[in-house]
Amino acid sequence: MAENNSEEEEKYKAQTIEAVGKWKSKRGSLIMALHEIQGVFGYIPWASARTVADEMGVPLARIYEVLTFYNYFKIEKPGKNIISVCDGTACHLKGSQSVLKAYQDELGIGAGETTPDGLFHLQIVRCLGCCGLSPVSVVNGKTYSRVTPGDVKNIIAEWRAKETENNAESK
After folding, report:
1. Strand pairing partners for 125?
2. Domain 81-169 maps to which CATH number in 3.40.30.10, 3.10.450.50, 3.40.640.10, 3.40.50.300?
3. CA 43/CA 72 separation, integer angstroms
4. Which SS3 state, helix, strand or coil, does residue 32 take?
5. pLDDT tens across 11-59, in order?
6. Which of 23, 103, 153, 159 would bridge 29 by S-S if both were Cys, CB 3.0 to 4.6 A apart?
7. Would you place residue 1 in the very low, low, confident or very high pLDDT band (cuts 50, 70, 90)?
8. Residue 28 confidence (pLDDT)
């Protein structure tokens, strides 16, 4: 949560106030408000956390406590492409740890980290509800079933190619 300057804070404030608006009058709705904000930004910017504290009358320390307790919340901007590796029971038993290791080796990052170019964020999830297809990985909502460590290079290459394609189209 490194953002400090007022320019950054203003960037997030209006959208945060709007996202918090429907929750701030409801008792015990801090987590729902934070979900709403993460849905807007993809993570909880520090400026947004401060705005939530002001708008909802919740101490900033309490907000930070919630953000760091729940694995779902991200306090740093994730990469453009979110790779979720399921490590639920079925996936774990069918080799998700070796798939995770292949992602880590290929991307040069650990779980919960983002590549230096900001293109990929790697995360472990506990269950994706696709147990019959295990082990499973999801990239930006696209499900890959029965993933092996050998599949990882191709999955990453697919998303790198999409990025290159998108960059070419936007020029």
Report:
1. 86
2. 3.40.30.10
3. 10
4. helix
5. 788 888 888 888 878 887 899 999 999 988 889 999 899 999 999 999 9
6. 23
7. very low
8. 79
pTM score: 0.72
Give, in order, the Cα–Cα distances in Å from 152 to each of 91, 105, 107, 143.
Answer: 15, 10, 10, 13
Q: What is the pLDDT of residues 72-113, one digit of tens each?
A: 788 888 889 999 999 999 999 999 999 999 999 999 999 989
Of 1, 5, 13, residue with least CA distance to 55: 13
Question: Can you give the residue ranges of every domain in the chain?
Answer: 6-69, 81-169
Do residues 37 and 48 lie in contact, with contact meaning Cβ atoms separated by under 8 Å? yes
Closest Cα partner for 96 from 74, 124, 68?
124
One-letter amino acid at 132 equals G
Closest by CA to 90, choosing from 145, 143, 139, is 145
The owner of tokens 């080799």 is 95
